[in-house]
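Section 3.1: Structural characterization of target chains.
Under the original work plan, the team committed to producing a structural model for every single-chain target entering the pipeline before any wet-lab resources were allocated. The record below documents one such target. The sequence was received from the expression subgroup and is listed exactly as submitted; it comprises 246 residues.
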Amino acid sequence: MFLSLLSLIGYLLCHILYDRMFWTEEHDVILVREMLANSPFAGTKRGTVQRGRKWNEISDRLSQVEAPKFKVDQRGVRERYGLLAKAYRRKIREEERSSGISTPELTEVEQALEDLIVREDEADRDQQETVAQKRKVKEDKKDAEEVRKRAMERLGDRTKRSENEGKAKKRRSSGNNTLEYLKERNERLDEIKKEELELKKQELQQEAAKNEAMMKLMGQQLQQQQKQIDGFQAMMMTMFSKILEN
């Protein structure tokens, strides 16, 4: 019984070790090359379906590599990059604290990580700015609605008060002061119209501000996409230059 249990444990351990993939430096080189060619951060946001689809594409391509063999899924690829990026960020911080000490030449993996970390940080920063801008537009719209509501309430109160005053004056008025009453009534109506026009002006200004904010947001997104395209083209030119030199 004891020997059978040991045999079963040995079989399970062998099976686990066989299916498990051990990352080597060669695996890391191919991983970062694939990420540079198919960046998971370009045009995607952290935690979205689009970002997950990018990681899936990378893992699928790595699984097609003959040598070295990859046995990874989306999560394995994402976690491996996260581990490499975290280690490289820690290395950079330590080098910055140790000023005056010469640093060794960067490896291919470190050079790629430097580029990928910049792209990841830019994508996160753009996501935070977009969320903040959307929140501001929402708050501005809420403020405009609140201003309009208060203005309408004041307008309703004044209209009701004017009507009540008009009725009281009408009861007190005789045939001799009818013209005076009509004159006062017309003046009050003119005042109400002016307030309505001012309210409409405020609504138009709020709408124009909202449109301007949306246009600014779209412009920033287009600029960021162009920066990412320019960065990718510059990286590809650098890689081609190195290949030609070799």
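The chain has a mean pLDDT of 78.
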